[in-house]
Amino acid sequence: MGAGELVPGQLLPPMRELATRLGVNPNTVAAAYRTLRERGVIETAGRRGSRVRPRPATTGREYIRVEVPEGVRDLADGNPDPALLPPLAAAFAAAAEQGDREPVLYGAGPVEPELARIARADLDADGVPDGPVAVTFGSLDAIERVLAVHLKPGDAVAVEDPGWGSVLDLVPALGLRTVPVGVDDEGPLPEDVRRALEAGARALIVTDRAQNPTGAVVGAERGRALRAVLGQHPETLLIEDDHGYRIVDRPLHPLAGVTRSWAFVRSVAKAYGPDLRLAVLTGDAATLDRVRGRQRLGPGWVSRLVQRAVVRLWADGAVDAPAVAAAYGRRRDALIRALARRGVQARGASGMNVWIRVPDETGAVARLLHAGWAVAPGARFRMSAPQGIRITVSTLTEEEIEEVADAVASAVGGPGVAGGYV
What we know:
By secondary structure, the protein is α/β, with parallel strands linked by helices. Helices cover 38% and strands 15% of the residues. The protein has 14 helices and 15 strands. The protein has an eight-stranded mixed sheet with strand order 4-11-10-9-8-5-6-7, with helices on both faces. Helix 7 packs parallel to helix 8 (220-231). It starts with 14 loop residues before the first helix and ends in an 11-residue tail after the last helix. Residues 416-422 have low confidence and may be disordered.
């Protein structure tokens, strides 16, 4: 397989047949198949036999990116606007002074008490069910830890399609199987979720707001529909990602509380700065106990110095959330309107990205790059969803929006070509 002699989807010989061919004990072949299955290289479907998985266990979507030459405007990176991030020096100075007075040593609690209090108050206000609080190194770290303590290799996880490329990489890297779920402007499609869970998916990952790459937001009606589906599958592990915290002006409609096992993660990266590497995680008591126990055997804890700095940022109101959300909203909506005037439909209900369906994403990306604009190819974010491109609007100026819209309309082939949604 490593040499590429077996192609994705190829049926492997029955274990007894292969054992005879190789002159080894059938138990040896069974053990080898089991190892390959646990590592996500092959999948087994009962009497139908074992096949090479259609994708390698680690797909490396982060490497599906555009190299941005000098002089080309980068609209592909997915970063927040540095001008909208708060200054960090004072917060870290205050945290360092506190650390000098109250040094954190081995054996100290992993969560800054004031951070837990403030975070839990915000979660309560947003209707997230009560639960203990943990701190992780960002959203992806939290999602990985929750999946790892609940699932075993070969289990299926329902994921948004298109969705966050890092999650689409993470799931198979853990030896798990991805099951795509369609997304519209209101979030995951309930019927797709129902089909995935009825087919045996053991977990569902949902982005509540500012979904990457489409900007979808789970509204009240969609939330009720999804909770109804989850209520019929109470053993499902539900993971919610609210990475759009404090950059979105749309209310949260959490799904948690319907299933026995759930986790809700809230990152500070987009509003306060990606390099803080901090997210707050809550969930049911059993899940959080497992996550914290495993965390103690690894990194131990997220720096209390960083946690104290985030507390200071929150307490000082360092981020004017309505103003930040409005700034991103103006840029996003202006680009969507400009594209619509040129006959190109685009999506972006919240957050800092706009998603555009295109007939040929490779060609569109290349033509836009030639025109001076780097955008993200849709292959980073999709499995079976139609082709598309993602444009990050976080640093777009008013003067640039019409130019970008002209370039996109030209790159995708003119009015009507990129119409329609997932």
